[in-house]
Amino acid sequence: MSVADTIARPYAQAIFEIAIENNTIEKWKNILIFIKTIASHKKFKNFLSGSISPKYLSLIFITIGTNIIDENAKNLIKLLSENQRFNILNNIFERFVKLEACYKNIIIVQLKSAFSLKENHINKIRKVLERFFLKKTKIIYKVDPNILNGMIVKVNNTIFDLSAQNHLKQLSDSLNF
Description:
By secondary structure, this protein is α+β, with helices and mostly antiparallel strands. The chain has eight helices and four strands, in the order ααααααβαβββα.
């Protein structure tokens, strides 16, 4: 776990607890997306470098997001600003999504394949994983041309490497004793 993930964990946990308490998980997801989108904008990054006071930085975020930012979100923005933590917003968001998945009894699966898979193939993989893990499955799919052939499936800390490259490596290892 990276330092950013370690720092992001309590922020995400606190946000998620507020979201559960107020039944506002989707709203908080949108708020986090909004904040991280603004913070990652190239023109806005200059403000995040410390050239502006935390008070005014918070005010800018709050003013831009008047329509979606409630009192709890204002407090989060102020806290992120005071602690100069806008750089870990992606980590906070990812952790929040994982907490939501756990809460809803969903596993998040990262699927990488050498070539583009059709939607029906991805759905078949999803069904197999749901039967295997006995949970709903959300697949995050990416094409990775670095994979020789086949696919790599990552669930939590478990990796199923079904690539040709891995099979060749295993064969090579077994022949070399």
